[in-house]
Amino acid sequence: MNVDEILKKIRPDLSYSELKEDERVIITNMLLDSEKSQLTPDKIRTYVTEMRLSIETELTKHLNDNPSLWSFLFKWKDDVFLKARLRNYILLEAMLLQPERARRMLESQITNMKG
What we know:
By secondary structure, this protein is mainly alpha-helical. It folds into 2 domains: about 1-40; about 40-115. About 75% of the residues lie in helices and about 0% in strands. The protein has helices spanning about 5-10, 20-35, 40-60, 70-75, 75-95, 100-115. The termini are far apart.
């Protein structure tokens, strides 16, 4: 099974070509390890950390750019999605590294959703 087929099962609107280069590398490596039955909890932790760092890098890439009306109107949507993905990876990483910390973060997010 290739990466595009897996992505289509998880998210039909996303294709491999739409991923960032570092995401492609990480996902491809993860898929290769899983096919070799070498996917261990430690490797999963490593992949999650790499994905989190990739998203953090992407979010901070344009911090020093001069803000413009164009970026305000069209780039905010990308930032919202990146921030949502970052929260998911932080939560997943916390669950893998520290279950108690993950429970507190999850409770905090649920509390923030209520209002």
